[in-house]
Amino acid sequence: MSLGSLVLLLLSILGALGLGHPGPLEDVVIDRYYIPKICLREVQMGDFIRYHYNGTFKDGKKFDSSYDRGATVAGVVGVGRLITGMDRGLQGMCVNERRHLIVPPHLGYGSIGVAGLIPPDATLYFDVIMLDIWNKNDKLQITTLSKPEHCNRTVENSDFVRYHYNGTLLDGTPFDSSYSKDSTYDTYVGTGWLIKGMDQGLLGMCAGEKRSIIIPPFLAYGEKGYGTVIPPQASLVFSVLLVDFHNPKDGVFLEHLEVPESCKRRAVTGDFIRYHYNGTLMDGTLFDSSYSRNHTYNTYIGKGYIIPGMDQGLQGVCVGERRRVVVPPHLAYGENGAGNKIPGSAVLIFDVHVIDFHNPADPVEIETVYRPEGCNTTTRHRDFVRYHYNCSLLDGTRLFSSHDYEKPQEVTLGANKVIEGLNSGLLNMCAGERRVLIVPPHLGHGESGARGVPGSAVLRFEVELVSMEEGVPEGYLFIWHEDPPANLYEQMDLNQDGEIPAEEFSTFIKTQVAEGKGRLMPSSDPEKVISDMFKNQDRNQDGKITPEELKLKSDEDQEKIHEEL
Predict the structure, then answer these.
(1) What molecular functions are annotated in GO for this chain (predicted)?
(2) Which entry of 64, 121, 127, 176 is annotated as an active-site residue?
């Protein structure tokens, strides 16, 4: 309040108290009975303003009111469009300030008055609240309220944005809010779909940034206003939270968070991949996670089984890689979104950890870590081998180990006792040799997996061949190194009593093995092998073999062939 106004106000108060009679008022008396704590600007000459008022005479009789008309008054201060008293009395006001003004006749309607409304020489009393102030030279006012630490990209013209907002008039009166609709406002920037002030105010924003944007009327709805909620010539205040944005020309954006130093192979179209992921919106809202299900997501890439953005984003990954894949909506779920967790036109962010991948055509990958010198004899089909192994997933998760047991693992190669990939990886090895085997699931435990082994998992074996024994053909328990004796039964009937009991049979076979004339099927229990041989020959199971019962395996096979013919 100016010193002159204060003096006039004091004089009027003294007169009212009967302490003096100042005579006719020389100037407007101003009573600033409510001043807001924050005043960003004050009314100056040439400013455009909007305000409400009640106009009364000294006796309290109302002669006019903007409230009664249901519309604010809008005009320019100091250019003669208002009575002089109002021009002066509104100077210096803040938005939401309230004033009592006493306007003497010579600064109001003078000796003429207004016919039928204001008598001549009337002193006018105004109760005013200031609602809006702007100037034709005003510019957009942007205040950044908060901003993410990391901002790789900002909004540009032609970008499609999704944002939340609260919209108020300059006096704080709300007129609209996206939050009340429980949906973001989605639109293009710089293409004329928004008021000019919002088109400008959103430029340069980061996803997750909050801004206050004050828009003068000529960059908003101007003289017409908008419906019943935005008056003509209203400045607008938007509190904006940018949720996400993209450009229709965007491709997939990749951020390599962690790439293993050793990457011998990268995923390509047609590979089957197992990976964990967290899926979030651009504002950090989690919409899905494989971790919450404690199960990897398993799929082919590049074949249309997943959204196009992920089909592209997983190309070239390494086993063990951690990658961030940012997918624009036109390569994700588009305008419709998905379910109640992915809104329409949402940018999706996948933080991916690749567990393993393979191709259905992959063979077993064999890496020889150590091979003894002078290795002349290697394992073959049907050989009996003893080996140690450690088995893990490609991410290092330990599954099984022969070292957990007292003895090495034993198996006859080709007897379908181990997975096909391990069987292949044990072929052509020397005793003492060490290998690393990478076994794809179609040569391992397949889509279903096994106890402790996830479905479609690639397995890593560290194997060491401890020993091997030469095997026998499939279906044989014993083979002769040369032709068998012509009088086999007589030689086997050690006491020449015309029958061969189990003890005689066992003694004979062991003698042949000891003399190097033949060999048993390799086994950790040769007695059981001999017992099985005896049972096969004792066809009537009476505990002894007769001449009629004894037949060579090769003769039996020939008989079956003739029968089939």
Answers:
(1) calcium ion binding; peptidyl-prolyl cis-trans isomerase activity
(2) 64
